[in-house]
């Protein structure tokens, strides 16, 4: 049993590694491509040809014999591998074989994590070479069994070289020593979100990521607390502004205008109206704050010898004859 196991691992390791080497040796223009990390580093990927039916049958028989407890999620194929599945596209229609995914964590697109569901797990050998990548789909509490870090405590979804896509216990795969592999430890990765430390300047701030050193200049962006007469704005960088509201007014309807400020204050307020005589027939009513304006006929009443406008106070002599025409002019709204 032990001998047969080792023979198998010679075979499966050949399947996992030889395709990469063969592909490298015949690297021609039409059988490689590049994909990019979130931070823009190009990563070489290979476009492989599929196994023959006989090769697939052989690999299937080996998996069936040595790893009966895996749950197959996609069938055997030489087209994509573990790294491509974990780092590039988590889909069985993936078309790339990725020899080396290290750019994803070397360029800080990803950072180390503790092995939560959704993290990428990587299996390293004692020289620091990344043998295998997968996705953590479950974690149990417990004690690491010493085989390969705490891999025994996670359930992993991973593509095994040129074999299939399997759901498996983290220490139940051909990469760990108990199954003939050379991985000695695992690391977990998650997408890196910058942790900026800010320096404030008059009109902008500079953020420097305390993890990866990325720098980002931005204008201040304030979130405001609104008080009756003023607002306080706070930027993520620590800069604070305290200022009176800077109101602007917009005509809303015949009764109200809206009062707005940069702080987000937005209220309806009655127009502040002032009416002035235009001529013997009309007056205009205007808001002193917004653009509201209406021209109306005077609203005359007879008082002794005068017609007096109830609204604007304009006086026209009653001795000059009847109320000046046009009487009853319809309001003109501008
Ligand atoms: Zn960063
Ligand atoms: Zn700022
Ligand atoms: Zn304000
Ligand atoms: Zn107004
Ligand atoms: Zn009037």
Q: Can you give me a brief rundown of this structure?
A:
The chain has three domains: 2-181, no CATH class; 196-244, no CATH class; 273-333, no CATH class.
Structure overview:
By secondary structure, the protein is mostly beta strands. The protein folds into three domains: 2-181, no CATH class; 196-244, no CATH class; 273-333, no CATH class. Helix content is 15%, strand content 38%. The chain contains four helices and 25 strands. Strands 3-8-7-6-5-9-4 form a seven-stranded antiparallel sheet. Strand 19 and strand 20 form a beta hairpin. The model is unreliable at 1-7 and 17-26 (pLDDT under 50). The site of one zinc ion has 7 residues, from loops.
Search tags:
single chain; mainly beta; 38% strand; seven-stranded antiparallel β-sheet; disordered N terminus; binds zinc ion; 334 residues; four-stranded antiparallel β-sheet
Taken together, the total number of domains comes to 3
Strand/helix succession: HEEHEHHEEEEEEEEEEEEEEEEEEEEEE
**Net shape:** elongated
Please state how the strands of the largest beta sheet are arranged side by side: 3-8-7-6-5-9-4
Largest beta-sheet characterization: 7 strands, antiparallel
Structural class: mainly beta
* Percentage of residues in DSSP E strands: 35-45%
- C-alpha-based Rg, rounded: 38 Å
Q: How many strand elements?
A: 25
